[in-house]
Amino acid sequence: MEHPVAEEARLRDIDALAREFERDREALEAEMARYDDESLSPREREEMGLAPKKKVKK
Fold first, then answer.
1. C-alpha to C-alpha distance for 44 and 27, rounded to whole angstroms
2. Which of 8, 21, 24, 56 has its CA 20 to 30 A from that of 1?
3. Residue 9 CA neighbour count, 13 Å, CB half
4. How far is residue 46 from each of residues 24, 34, 40, measured CA to CA in Å?
5. What are the E-state strand segments in the chain?
6. What residue ranges do the domains of the chain occupy?
7. What is the dihedral of CA 22, 27, 29, 34, to 10 degrees?
């Protein structure tokens, strides 16, 4: 059985990593939101992992 102090430290480390991951995810989402889909070329969209732009029939 893990010592209570060691387990508490491990849980704090896990919690800190989870918070860091969430901050990174939010920052990435904000950065991606700044891109205007219309201004990206098909190659840029592919490089960013975005779905191809659907062609709209007029």
1. 20
2. 21
3. 5
4. 21, 17, 10
5. none
6. 4-47
7. 170
Predicted TM-score (pTM) above 0.85 = no
Q: What are phi and psi of 16, to 5 degrees?
A: -65, -40
Token readout for 20 is 């860091």
CA dist 19 and 26 (Å) reads 11
Written as six digits, the tokens of 17 are 């990593």
Provide the pLDDT for residue 50: 75
Residues 6+ apart with CB under 8 A from 2: 10
**14-55 per-position pLDDT tens digit:** 999 999 999 999 998 888 777 656 677 888 878 877 777 666
